[in-house]
Amino acid sequence: MAGLFSPGLFAGKVALVTGGGTGIGRAIAGQLVELGAAVTVAARRPEPLRQTAAELTAAGPGRCHHLQADIRREQDVLRMVETVLERDGALHLLVNNGGGQFVSPAADISRNGWRAVIETNLTGTFTVCQTAHRLHMRQHGGAVVNIIADMFRGFPLMAHTGASRAAVENLTRTLAVEWAHDGVRVNAVAPGVIYSASAAANYADGLLEQCAGELPARRCGTTHEVAAAVCFLLSPGASYVSGATLRVDGAASLYARQLHRVPAHDRLPPYRGRAGPTGRAEPAAGSGRSRDREW
Ligand SMILES: CCCCC/C=C/C(=O)SCCNC(=O)CCNC(=O)[C@H](O)C(C)(C)COP(=O)(O)OP(=O)(O)OC[C@H]1O[C@@H](n2cnc3c(N)ncnc32)[C@H](O)[C@@H]1OP(=O)(O)O
Ligand SMILES: NC(=O)C1=CN([C@@H]2O[C@H](COP(=O)(O)OP(=O)(O)OC[C@H]3O[C@@H](n4cnc5c(N)ncnc54)[C@H](OP(=O)(O)O)[C@@H]3O)[C@@H](O)[C@H]2O)C=CC1
Where is this region: Disordered (predicted)? Predict the structure, then answer.
């Protein structure tokens, strides 16, 4: 990625990246440090955070701190933002990348499973945005990027994440308008299928590779490709971009591939009106089972 952005682009800037210890978040933090920022990575597991912070600081020229925080816990979020402000004296750049979900048919998602994903992806993101705004950005401005997902045509087998990411996209637009007056820009980045260790582990049995073969790009995206888009949106080059969603998916969201394939069936019978052209009601097409489902 060397040379893509001007060296020192983010020198003197303070950034917070949730979920910054691994995968896409780590790549974002890495690029910000490479461009001179003082970055804090925050998540629940201390070890990946510690290792990422050490490696990124060693690479410089910026620096990377780490902080344990669960974005589902309001107290953690408050402490996280306060710590950054006390240590670095500002918070210019916020990336809400922490999140996750699991693969499940909507019919089988437990109430607690639904709540876990919504509270992480939606409520967690909102809480971090609101806290950063209240404690600093309202007075001083800033730039926020929310990581969402390719949920534009629904998200079969991940209804919880589809619903929460769509909500965050809408939240992004609302905040872009409400906070323009405070000098805060808010944008979203929607990654398609991105190769990260976590994605490979959570979408096992070659699912990721299978998806990749069916994408317009015929490959997964890289974490660095997402990071580059985020850095652009955080940079002064995007000073007139707010409320936007940048899709980093190699056109996957425009293509008919779906993780879930609908098996052949005739359970959605057509409506044929009260009477056909002959004046008689048209007979229902398909099997007896199809007719059973007319209601
Ligand atoms: C095919 C390619 C598409 C690529 C698109 C996107 C890819 C990515 O986003 S990859 C990287 C994201 N990383 C992850 O998603 C990390 C793994 N996921 C999680 O950590 C969880 O999904 C989480 C967000 C729900 C974590 O919540 P947590 O509170 O830590 O989890 P709990 O163990 O306490 O469970 C709460 C609740 O959720 C149910 N549940 C959790 N995992 C599953 C599962 N795999 N299947 C079914 N249900 C699950 C769990 O059972 C709990 O509910 P109850 O049992 O009813 O109490
Ligand atoms: N890879 C892909 O194809 C896609 C990924 N995404 C999204 O991009 C983001 C990064 O994904 P990726 O890098 O692939 O996967 P990772 O699992 O590596 O990233 C998710 C990060 O979020 C952190 N996190 C999860 N829950 C919480 C929480 N409650 N509080 C704080 N941090 C939390 C995790 O750390 P910890 O568990 O230690 O808290 C982890 O570092 C995620 O939101 C993901 O859903 C969206 C579309 C596609």
Answer: 266-295
CA of 116 to the centre of ligand 1 (A): 8
The average pLDDT across 134-161 equals 98
Residue of 76, 102, 205 with the most ligand 1 atoms within 8 Å of its CB, for mutation: 102
DSSP designation for 269: P
Co-location of 225 and 105 in the same domain: yes
C-beta 164 within 6 A of ligand 1: no
Write down the pTM of the prediction. 0.95
The reported pLDDT for the residue numbered 208 is 86
ipTM of the complex: 0.97
Counting the structural domains of the chain, the total is 2
Average pLDDT over residues 63-75: 98
Residues of 167-178 as b/e, b for ≥16 C-beta within 10 angstroms? bbbebbbebbee
- Looking at ligand 2, which atom is closest to the CA of residue 70? 30
Q: Is 223 in the pocket of ligand 1 (CB under 6 A)?
A: no
- Same-domain check for residues 213 and 268: no
pLDDT of residue 286: 53
Counting from 1 in the atom list of ligand 1, the atom nearest the Cα of 114 is 38
CATH number of residue 102's parent domain: 3.40.50.720
**Does a structural domain hold residue 3?**
no
Torsion of CA 6, 48, 64, 16, to 10 degrees: 80
Atom of ligand 2 nearest to the CA of 194: 3
Do residues 146 and 187 make contact, with C-beta atoms less than 8 angstroms apart?
Answer: yes
Cα(97) to ligand 2 centroid in Å equals 6
CA 232 to chain centre: 16
**pLDDT tens digits along 38-53:** 999 999 999 999 999 9
Which residue has its alpha carbon closest to ligand 2 atom 26? 99
271 and 233 share a domain? no
